[in-house]
Amino acid sequence: MAAVVCALAAAAQAGAREDYQRGLSSFKALLANEKRAALRDEWLGTAAFFEKSLGGDARGESAPKCMYFLGRCHEELGKRSFLKADRQNALAAFDRMLKAFPRHSWADDSLYRKGLIMLEQAGDTDAARKIFQDVIDHYPKGDMAPEARKHLETLGGKSGKKDTVQAGKKASAKSARSGGTPARLNGIRHWSGQEYTRVVLDLDREVAYERTLEEQGGNKELRISLPGTTVAADVMRARNVGDGTLAQIRVGEGGGRTLVTVDLLRAGNYRVFALPDPYRVVIDVYADSGAGESGPDAAGTDHVRDTLEELQREQKSAPAREETAAKGSQKGGKRGGAADARASKSGQPALVPSAKQKKYSGSLMEQLGLKVRTVMIDAGHGGKDPGAIANGVREKDVNLRMARIMGNMLQAQGFKVLYTRTTDKFIPLEERTALANAKGADLFISIHCNAYKDPRIHGLEVYYLNLATDAQAVRVAARENGVSAKKISDMQFILSDLMLNSKINESRQMAALVEKEVMRGVGPRYKISSHGSKGAFFYVLTGARMPSVLVELGYLTNPKEAAHLDSDEYLTAMARGLVNGIMAYKKKLERYSG
């Protein structure tokens, strides 16, 4: 009997070691693949290996390491989800390890990781400072003591709340390889409204920036530190804003870095991200708690969590073959994409409220449904940027003509219409949504035309901001963003932040309705095809606070479609479909609120 027990115990220990090794391999693979790391299920699946190992042998040789990596899985997940629950799960796993194995050689690592979580995810510098001091006091000879000491030196005796995030580590390596030549801050631009301000820092290259929120005596300063950066001579060192959100923007140099300080007024929410080619750091500041990062738990709602998880499941299961679009286009008049599957069931995409949405439907509809009165139309490209040119037609001209036709129709329906441009003028992509946010638009519609090397390809496409789920979406986004397809794939990880604060569900619903109504009105008459509505990473939609879509009217590289798009009669028919889609979206929201 004793032999059987020993054999079973040995088998359990062997299984626990095997599960630990599987979990470790999966963890390392996720850290090396940011696209997979953006998926919640990947981290939970990896954590399950460590949980299973602990279930087989909770006191064995691999147990403390399993507890540590269990914490690391939830820590990495928390970095991407911004959910309080993920952060708490990580802290609980590290506490479990410290309680069960306080003298293990990895105990100081677990304690140190707790400090990092409190500093970087919770933004609680007092708690982080205490934990880092505990690392030094309890594990003075551990390898984490020097790291903890560095953090204490940085935190020092500063009072108030501090929230620091580092970005652009690749930029540091690039700067080192460039021989130490400093980067340059070439300019600062901003657009303001009573409830929102966007500030853009224009740099001549990628920079490893750091953001810090300082709060002292009720006053807040958002500081953007740009290491190894100088300031161009014509950049204003101080500018008063006074728009209700910001008081002032200040620029200073010293210690081999440039510091941009944004003095906040009643703003409690902000978001900072970078866009490439040309490289710029974008700062969105909000006057209310409706968007941005109002605190470490800003994203922690059922609706947001469900949205993110649903989008991640979509990315994981979506097809990734560009050839599918080519085959569908050549048949002519045939609709395609996910929009068909949804529309075929009920005639319109389902808009199903969650329990929390029902509870707050009144306030939500004031923000999203009953207040659909102002539409901003963005005529893509313009000025020095002609967009696609093929078959004697320039995209920027078609976009502007369509914007005017569509705007007149919307005004006739009682909407207030705003435009990003009404002339042949160049407007940077980040300025377009900034204008929509600052002017309080309720919907944002960006108008474009497509192009491709194969002249047989044709058809309508409607996009909303999301992770690109197929090669065609990546290609279209890359062309409109003015970057390579590889750059789009490399950058999609920042959407784990942006997705949580954008109207993705609403934008997806509107995209499907717009695509359906255009095809209903134009498809039978002109025999056009559609590639459906889908998500992709478009800079022009990034940071929009309202439901937003980008419409690719058709392919200028297809001779027949180019001729259509050069015709006011055809544009009028398409505009009518777009307006009908907006009306259908508005009516659906009104029914939802009732």
From TrEMBL:
* Top-level enzyme category: hydrolase
| Gene Ontology annotations for the cellular component aspect, listed alphabetically | outer membrane-bounded periplasmic space
Which residue ranges have biased composition labelled Basic and acidic residues? 310-325
UniProt xrefs under SMART domains: Ami_3
Low complexity compositional bias, start-end:
167-180, 338-347
A molecular function (GO) term: N-acetylmuramoyl-L-alanine amidase activity
Q: Which UniProt keywords apply?
A: Hydrolase
Q: Biological process GO annotation list?
A: peptidoglycan catabolic process
Reaction catalyzed: Hydrolyzes the link between N-acetylmuramoyl residues and L-amino acid residues in certain cell-wall glycopeptides
Superkingdom of the source? Answer: Bacteria
UniProt domain MurNAc-LAA: residue ranges? 433-583
Q: Does the keyword Hydrolase apply?
A: yes
Gene3D superfamilies xrefs? 2.60.40.3500, Tetratricopeptide repeat domain, Zn-dependent exopeptidases
Keyword Hydrolase in the entry? The reply is yes
Could you tell me which residues belong to the region Disordered?
154-182, 310-358
E.C. numbers: 3.5.1.28
What name appears for this protein in its UniProt entry? N-acetylmuramoyl-L-alanine amidase
